[in-house]
Amino acid sequence: MPPLLTALPRLSSRLPTRLLTPTPLPLHRLQSTYQPPDPPLSQQQQQPSHDNSNNNNNPHGNFYKTFGRPLAKTFLIAVATYQLLYISWLKLESMEVKREKEGEMRALRGELEGLTAGTGTGKGKGFSGS
């Protein structure tokens, strides 16, 4: 007797019993997942028209067909964000210019009042006060 066959009973006594007894597979695993192939296409269906072949085989067209809408949305959101920030910047800049002009006007009024107050009636300098 070959040594492997003599060692088999000793090995089987060392193995757990769950490995020695076969367990049945669940029923859902025994069901076949085979699907028959599609029936062969007729001669008319095998030769696609030129219009369909250009659309299906064009990788650029397929890319934009798949990602065109998300890219357009992203682009529009980016443009809207840029416009919003640009208009906000213009508004803040105009407010800053307005404050500078108002400060300059106040300084000029103060200087004018100082000049008119120093002359008294204002007739000596050729300025008629109002």
From TrEMBL:
Q: Where is this region: Disordered?
A: 17-64, 109-130
Composition bias (Gly residues) maps to 117-130
Q: What are the Low complexity biased-composition ranges?
A: 41-60
Name of protein: Inner membrane assembly complex subunit 17
Top-level division of the source organism's lineage: Eukaryota
Q: Please give the organism.
A: Friedmanniomyces simplex
